[in-house]
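step=encode ok
step=design start
structure_in=
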């Protein structure tokens, strides 16, 4: 905070600001330039500037201006800081108005109804503590898991095609593409299931993140999420039976999922041409089930379509397995 007034009023504002939950006052620079330099170096997210002669101008009716700056490069903390700064400025203004009115003879009860004719009760549903970890962990961790499953699945099949070992794999599987894929992917599936079990336990049992529904339905969602991701990656390999291309496409879609899965920006507010892509990645349905079951705790019947989407992703590669079988029996190296 930059207090260029130094009066009892500015010190009271500083004390109120420091008591806010979202603010940690670290520095008290003496000038605007010092505060700006601290923000440019990334040491602070923002600063609150009280001008010179603030109290004198206020009492004289000259309408002094309180200014606050936030570094929106760090969007989430800066947004929370902006909200706190604005609330502090509003409270300071209201407190001063009340003092002036009381000195003019207005009783406290009448003044209270004049200042706030409507009482507001804000209840952040789903994340009442405004805990950033609840938002980030329950969305980004499964999305990172999806990316890893995509890459591992595409690499496992793609390397067989690249190095020409797919023909021997098909011979070991008696010419059955189903046996060949089961031998390659089922051990990985078991490993991913162990990982998602511990991920779910970490989120909802040990970190005590909100779980207003059934822990079992969330665990089932994560278990179905794994083969859904494998099915999507396998479909990409069927379309592009090349290690480099399939890995590139899986990596691209996996990275873009952090944006198009609509964790922080709702699909209806996206451009329709972009919003449609949110429904082609499994993580979107994982996130929707999390919203329904963990945060809202509604009946699982309302999430049935998202579970059906998992099944569709699992069945998706079966439409092109004949093509993958042909390529695995006759692998062609493409650099």
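sequence_out=
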């Amino acid at each position: 905070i930059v207090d260029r007034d130094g009066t009892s009023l500015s010190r009271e504002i500083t004390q109120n600001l420091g008591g806010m939950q979202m603010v940690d006052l670290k520095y008290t620079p003496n000038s605007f330039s010092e505060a700006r330099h601290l923000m440019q170096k990334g040491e602070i997210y923002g600063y609150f500037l009280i001008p010179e002669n603030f109290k004198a101008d206020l009492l004289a009716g000259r309408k002094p201006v309180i200014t606050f700056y936030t570094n929106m490069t760090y969007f989430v903390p800066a947004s929370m800081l902006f909200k706190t700064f604005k609330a502090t400025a509003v409270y300071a203004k209201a407190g001063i108005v009340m003092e002036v009115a009381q000195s003019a003879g207005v009783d406290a009860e009448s003044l209270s109804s004049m200042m706030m004719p409507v009482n507001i009760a804000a209840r952040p549903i789903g994340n009442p503590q405004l805990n950033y970890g609840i938002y980030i962990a329950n969305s980004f961790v499964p999305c990172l898991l999806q990316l890893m499953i995509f890459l591992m699945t595409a690499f496992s099949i793609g390397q067989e095609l690249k190095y020409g070992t797919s023909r021997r794999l098909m011979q070991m599987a008696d010419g059955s593409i189903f046996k060949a894929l089961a031998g390659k992917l089922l051990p990985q599936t078991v490993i991913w299931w162990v990982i998602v079990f511990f991920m779910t336990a970490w989120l909802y049992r040990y970190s005590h993140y909100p779980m207003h529904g059934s822990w079992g339905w969330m665990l089932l969602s994560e278990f179905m999420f794994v083969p859904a991701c494998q099915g999507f990656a396998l479909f990409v390999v069927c379309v592009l039976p090349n290690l480099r291309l399939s890995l590139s496409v899986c990596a691209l879609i996996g990275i873009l999922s952090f944006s198009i899965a609509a964790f922080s920006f709702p699909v209806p507010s996206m451009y329709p041409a972009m919003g449609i892509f949110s429904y082609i990645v499994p993580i979107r349905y994982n996130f929707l089930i999390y919203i329904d079951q963990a945060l809202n705790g509604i009946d699982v019947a309302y999430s049935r379509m998202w579970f059906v989407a998992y099944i569709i992703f699992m069945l998706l590669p079966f439409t092109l397995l004949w093509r993958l079988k042909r390529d695995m029996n006759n692998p062609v190296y493409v650099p």
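step=design ok
step=annotate ok -> The two ends are 59 Å apart (CA to CA).
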